Amino acid sequence: MFLLLACIISFLALITPAAHGGKVLVFPHVGSHWVNMRVLVEELHLRGHTVTVIRAADSWYISETSSHYSTVTVNVSGGGNEEFFHHFVSEVIKIKRSKGSAWARFALDMELKDKFFELHKQICEVVVYMFENRELMKSFQEAKYDVVLTDPANGGGVLLAHYLGLPLVFNARWTVHGEAHFAIAPSPLSYVPLPPSELTDQMTFLERVKNMAFYTMRMHLYKQIVGPHYSALTNRYFGSDVGYFSLFQAADLWLMRVDFVFEFPRPTMPNVVYMGGFQCKPAKPLPQNLEEFVQSSGEHGVIIMSLGTLIAELPHDLADEIAAAFAKLPQKVIWRYKGSRPSTLGHNTLLVDWMPQNDLLGHPNIKLFISHGGTNGIYEAIYHGVPIVGIPFVFDQADNLSRLRAKGVANVLDISDLDKKIFLEAIQDVLNEPSYTINMQRLASLHKDQPMKPLDRALFSIEFVMRHRGAAHLRTESYRMPWYSYYSVDVLLFLLAVALLSALFFIGLIWFCLRLCFKRKQKSD
Amino acid sequence: MFLLLACIISFLALITPAAHGGKVLVFPHVGSHWVNMRVLVEELHLRGHTVTVIRAADSWYISETSSHYSTVTVNVSGGGNEEFFHHFVSEVIKIKRSKGSAWARFALDMELKDKFFELHKQICEVVVYMFENRELMKSFQEAKYDVVLTDPANGGGVLLAHYLGLPLVFNARWTVHGEAHFAIAPSPLSYVPLPPSELTDQMTFLERVKNMAFYTMRMHLYKQIVGPHYSALTNRYFGSDVGYFSLFQAADLWLMRVDFVFEFPRPTMPNVVYMGGFQCKPAKPLPQNLEEFVQSSGEHGVIIMSLGTLIAELPHDLADEIAAAFAKLPQKVIWRYKGSRPSTLGHNTLLVDWMPQNDLLGHPNIKLFISHGGTNGIYEAIYHGVPIVGIPFVFDQADNLSRLRAKGVANVLDISDLDKKIFLEAIQDVLNEPSYTINMQRLASLHKDQPMKPLDRALFSIEFVMRHRGAAHLRTESYRMPWYSYYSVDVLLFLLAVALLSALFFIGLIWFCLRLCFKRKQKSD
User: Which UniProt keywords are given for this protein, alphabetically ordered (chains A, B) (predicted)?
Assistant: First the structure.
């Protein structure tokens, strides 16, 4: 028995390395990205590490005081643009619902592009503020951090880590160049769809053309919007021979916020650790009133609907159509909605300001989740095996939902022509066709069947980088090669030249021999 | 306390899924490959699975009876050619030592090629024997296996799994096409060295040319030696539209016998699980006589030497040189050697028939390991942090050792000009230059710092495939695409054509407009 306990303890010691009280410097990204980062920050704190988070003075997500981390507030604007994004979403809905012109949509997209341009400019201002503030940089250096943890959706953390000579860990799905894998893993465009193209890993010829077009466009956008900001900074602080893209590709570790029940299988790299679903937890009991409401649904069960924080309100007509569809159902509905009460709302529908979404999704009476397609909600639905009716609005939402559609776990609607009838049919389709639930429960069982929880894996990996001051043995340095070497173009041209020269030599030799023979023949004649 | 125990138990239950008494059908590869496979077979048995191993009647490695597995003996020759390989190695040594002609070496390599040709022919005979034996195939089908586990160094298991419609797991480093990664993971030849080229991940231009040449040669060898055998069988049993290479690429899981402390960082795939070092264990106490010998070394410590099972003997002159070098050392030496006692043997050297290699490598008094570069010994040395003097002879040994040399943990010698002086200098170099030991201990600490032991990870993955009847969500189906689609050649040509046609159209338009203007001008003139 003693031996068994000793074994268990040594085994636990092996898999759960003691928190060694390291120091983590976090350069986060704004908006919903912070929601993900905070999960890691809080867990790092619980494991005994000291975490310092850098925030802009006007940050509307990252609070200045927390029991889990200390902050360094940079007195520059860069806290994101919540108002603009709310405006953007409601404009998109307006254009889509009124079948607005392609031109109106294009103009809006250009506005978005400018906003991203501005956002990266602000991030760069934050970086310049830090780099120019000698006191601050000295304090960073003296604090002897073990690692910089950052979201590569902006480039600030990359620059900071290089300045301080610290190992770099990414909490990533999007980078300043697009989807994160595309920056380091070989990504054949023939079977790796580029988000947000809504394509799958099995594409027709025309879909592959579309994928290539998306890729080209994305590269162009990077070069136009993002590249110049960061290149200017690397030039200014690290010299002209240091490129921003190389610094970024040299990160020690990529904690990728995807799981292969969601992501299509594709090439990856040894320093990518998959932690999709790291924020998911078993459900806790519901508050009593909610539990009573859920129980009152009887055998029909409950539908929950949430469109995320950006889409708190909907146009009246749309809210009315949705409420009217719900009223037709025998199920009970819990709808997270902040707008005014729709006139068509049925008795079966409960409007709430906020809901314990994870606990509801884990409740056995929940039959269906109506979602905008944000990744947090999607992973919670996968974790609990609840099928989805998707209503994507902006950004990666349609692409996220298209992946679930491809796996047979979601019915995805278009906001443009959404009405009571279409909405009701979609809900009934998912409720009545068992394959949605069966497929989703299969994804849940695959997702949960891992030897280690995604969050534990992520934390282990961060601590690994801290213990070993990086993870050089997992990271290729192929990004240092010029493209013609990387793709072996120089080698192929060389071999071609050798082959051609050899051929020419032999042809010459044969010609020479023939001429010799011919001359001799002439002579002997 | 009760809560803690409950937590530990539930945690253990989570990471160690209960053995569910599955059934595993194993089609192994001969020779030292079986040594690796047996580790998995025995562990599967210990976890409550029933394991059936297929063996040829003349198999000299796989015994017919075992307490860990049952066997199906196929009455066909196919058990490998131990005698030939012994002959081959001693011929290689002879040629190298006598500075034999390149022609002699080439002739020997051709003999080896023929032997591999014959080996694969024998494997195919085993497969045909099974497929034609209706009783046997019926018994396989009725046994309801959960998975086929095979070493893809031969293609038998692949064919059997497809015939029986079972999930397929590889225990792989080499396949019938060469190094295993090259069959499924993108492998840019610019930074992924092809074993056994002895190149690293940082190559000069000429080295990259060499790598490309090796790759071309390897593909040619596959097409010439191996491909035809297996293609004939897929044609015969599965129809002409099923290619062997596709069946092989469709494996659910690749348990790769490498670790990134040994392998250079390179692209990989989601269904590759790294289990390099899975056979390593902490050292057990030594037998008393050996422990006394080791302790008698005092502060100088002990050197151990083993050249594996294939190289039990050496030419007299070479053995004398080695023994004479050992005699000069203040260290004690344990030398696994089966030949006659060298005349120059010193009192400090103990000749043994066999040694508990892992237990010796884990002993704190061991200072150096002299090895031929087989992977088992290499991983044991890495695990215990013991630096290496390498003497490669054949196969992948030189390449394995070149990886260790690149990481600064081995001094590698050439058998051709090995003499007492060179050997002594190499030993003294590794003993006196601390970087060898420091680097090796760094590799050991990186290798051991994993959240899960490699063997546990491998077993979890096999059981995962058994539980879910495959791992389709981790496996791309890109191998089904024709090469021109895979590499987007068709898309690029299409886009080029569109660009050209657009350009032509615009040029035509401009030309037409110009002509129109010109005509009007003429008229108005």
Answer: Glycosyltransferase, Membrane, Signal, Transferase, Transmembrane, Transmembrane helix
